[in-house]
Amino acid sequence: MTTISSLHSPIRFAIVGAGAVSDYHHVPAIRLDPRARLTVVCDASDELLTRRRKDWQADHFTTDFRDACTRDDVDAVIIATPNYTHREIAVLAAQSGKHVMCEKPLGLNAEEVRTMYHACRAAGVVHMTAFTYRFAPSMRYMRQLLHQGHLGEPRHFRSQRFLDWPETSWGWRQYKDKAGAGDLFDMTIHRIDFAQDLLGPLEQICGAVARFAPRDQTPDGRVCPPSEVDDWSCLIGEFKNRATGVWEGTTLAKGYGRNGFGHEWAEINGSEGSAVYRLHEPNVLLLGKTGQDLAPVTVPPEFLKPKDSPRDPKQGEPATVFRYDLVWEFVSAIVEGRDAVPSFYDGLRAQIVADAVLRSYEKRTWVTIPDEPR
Predict the structure, then answer these.
(1) In three state form, how does the secondary structure of 125-166 look?
(2) Both 144 and 280 in a single domain?
(3) d(CA 94, CA 125)
(4) Do residues 164 and 262 lie in contact, with contact meaning Cβ atoms separated by under 8 Å?
(5) Does 3 have pLDDT greater than 50?
(6) Residue 333 lies inside a defined structural domain of this protein
(7) What average pLDDT score do residues 155-178 get?
(8) Whether residue 164 is found in the same domain as residue 227
(9) Mean pLDDT throughout 10-37?
(10) Which residues form the domain of 177?
(11) 140 and 289 both lie in a single domain
């Protein structure tokens, strides 16, 4: 791991992939953190780079990810490109001595992710998976209540992620060779991750995927090849601690707009009580016990953000601003010379389960989740 004494201050970032996710999450977060500076912006689109020159402040703009990942004025790389490009970019960045944060899914399958993870380990760089929802205040509070025993012995985990998206083309995201899978890899994989963070590793699962929308037209009405990936996914799982889990995700739940945030519900039922996280109210947790119906409880101030995070939890849209803590954690791990949480290892564990869902559906059977050595 890179030592603190060898670090440049502030940490100099390259963003590879200048699309909406970077504009929405990563760039505002870098701007908030005095320990970080955006140095290089990379995207394959000249048109998008022209816009970002006006939108973002950076020293260098390029269409060549190799340039971005190997420059002397870059300490860390954030990868927000199509899924099929993640492995090559991450491995190059790691081998060039750069710390790496990557959007999920980390790769098209677990073998790609394993390659990325071991490349970062071999290079001794910090690696982080952009599992944003771990940083939601109510999710952080739920984790604390669970681990301190306030819910008793955990018995059931339950997750719903329902979106009402247009049934037009997803672009590269709807083709297997570019995305790997659809809703399963894009949305459900987040919920697989925080379930395993809360309850430990899954032991076996069965799952299914389905595709209902052809997505054979672009938003402006042009014909395109139809979608090859799922727009609905689900799984049932058994954790090693004997708790059970149920997950369902869809992009076709009509009426679940919620100003673009959709419906998200993550629930734990323990022997002493239940707790529910909801994305549209991330600063409120639902809690209940026998004889006491589920009722909203405001998340205590100490869980609204990590202690030293520079953001003000009173500012901005609650369902948006917690996402900025992702970059704060990445920078903190670099500065402190420690592992980031969640790491590429966490991304690999979630990918193994997501791959198993596809295998389970193909074989119409339960699949055992193998242990993955660190």
Answers:
(1) CCEEECCHHHHCHHHHHHHHHHHCCCCCCEEEEEEEEECECC
(2) yes
(3) 7
(4) yes
(5) no
(6) no
(7) 98
(8) yes
(9) 97
(10) 134-301+311-318+350-367
(11) yes
